[in-house]
UniProtKB/TrEMBL annotation:
InterPro entries found in the cross-reference section: Aldolase_TIM, PRAI_dom, RibuloseP-bd_barrel, TrpF_fam
Residue ranges occupied by any N-(5'phosphoribosyl) anthranilate isomerase (PRAI) domain in the UniProt entry: 171-247
Keywords assigned: Amino-acid biosynthesis, Aromatic amino acid biosynthesis, Isomerase, Tryptophan biosynthesis
Pfam families in the cross-refs: PRAI
Organism, as annotated: Desulfonema limicola
Protein's recorded name: N-(5'-phosphoribosyl)anthranilate isomerase
Length: 257
C-alpha cells in the first residue's frame, strides 16, 4: 500500500518542529491566527526548518483578505496553504463560497508552486447527513490540491446554523471526531487526496484509517498536552502521543504488506 501521510498541527516553534521531524511526522502545520499580526518570525523559522528537513510545511491563515494573504504567503513560503473557513453548515452552502473559490484561484495564479489544502466541514457522528459536505467539496475540488475533513460542531438546540466553534468562522480544533461515514464517502468521491482529521488521537486513528481509507491522517487537539484538569493545551504537543501515533500508522502499513 502507499504510505499514509501523517500531519500534525499546530506547531509554532522550530524547537517543537524539530521534535516532530525526528519522530517521523510527514506534514507539519502552523497557524497565523490574526491578520494584524501576520508576520511572526518564530513561525517563519518553523516553516523554514520543516522545508529544510525535507518534510512538508502547511500554513493556515485565519483570515482571507487578499492583500494580507498574499503578503503572508510571500513571507512564509510554505509548501501548502491551508484554508479552513466554514464553507457549509446545517443551513446549506455558505454564500461566500464563490468568493472563496475565486480567492483560491488567485492564490494558485500568484503562487503556482504552492499547493492548496481545503478543509471540508463534516458534522460529528451521527449528524453527517445534516451538512452538504460532499456538495461543498465538489465545488472546491477544481481549485484545491488536497482536502482535509474536519469537525463542525452542531448543537441540538440550535437550528440557525450559527454554531459556536473554537475559532469563529472556521472549522477545526474541536477534539471531536467527524462522522466517518461521510468522511469515507468523501474519500471515495474525491479526485484529490483526502486527509482524515477531526478528533484523531492514538486511540482511534487506526479505526479511522480502516473506516475511511484516507490518503493521510491529521491530529491537532488529540496529540496536545493536557493541563491539570485534563483539558488539551493549545500549541503544546505531547510527544509521547505523537510518537505513538507515528508508530501505530507505520506498523499498520507494515501489516498490510
Amino acid at each position: 500500500m502507499k504510505k499514509i501521510i501523517i500531519q500534525i498541527y499546530e506547531i509554532q516553534t522550530p524547537e517543537e518542529a524539530g521534535l516532530l521531524i525526528d519522530a517521523g511526522v510527514d506534514n507539519i502545520g502552523s497557524v497565523v491566527r490574526f491578520e494584524s499580526e501576520w508576520k511572526d518570525t518564530r513561525v517563519k523559522e518553523t516553516v523554514e526548518l520543516v522545508k529544510k528537513s525535507g518534510r512538508t510545511s502547511s500554513l493556515i491563515p485565519l483570515f482571507n483578505n487578499l492583500d494580507t494573504l498574499f503578503n503572508t504567503i510571500d513571507y512564509y513560503q510554505p509548501d501548502i496553504i491551508h484554508f479552513c473557513e466554514i464553507i457549509a453548515d446545517q443551513t446549506g452552502i455558505n454564500p461566500d463560497c464563490l468568493k472563496l473559490i475565486d480567492l483560491q484561484k488567485k492564490v494558485k495564479a500568484g503562487f503556482p508552486e504552492i499547493k492548496i489544502m481545503r478543509s471540508i466541514p463534516i458534522a460529528q457522528f451521527p449528524k453527517g447527513s445534516l451538512i452538504p459536505s460532499l456538495e461543498a467539496a465538489k465545488m472546491f475540488e477544481p481549485v484545491s490540491d488536497y482536502f482535509l475533513t474536519d469537525t463542525l460542531i452542531l448543537h441540538k438546540s440550535d437550528n440557525t446554523g450559527n454554531y459556536s466553534q473554537p475559532e469563529n468562522g472556521f472549522v477545526g480544533i474541536t477534539g471531536i471526531t467527524c462522522d466517518w461515514d461521510t468522511a469515507a464517502k468523501l474519500v471515495e468521491a474525491s479526485k484529490i487526496p483526502v486527509i482524515l482529521a477531526g478528533g484523531i488521537n492514538p486511540d482511534n486513528l487506526i479505526q479511522g484509517i480502516i473506516k475511511t481509507k484516507p490518503w493521510g491522517i491529521d491530529s491537532c487537539t488529540g496529540t496536545n498536552k493536557l493541563d491539570s484538569s485534563g483539558v488539551p493545551v493549545r500549541f503544546k504537543k505531547d510527544m509521547k502521543k505523537v510518537m505513538q501515533m507515528v508508530e501505530l500508522v507505520r506498523n499498520y502499513e507494515k501489516s498490510l504488506k
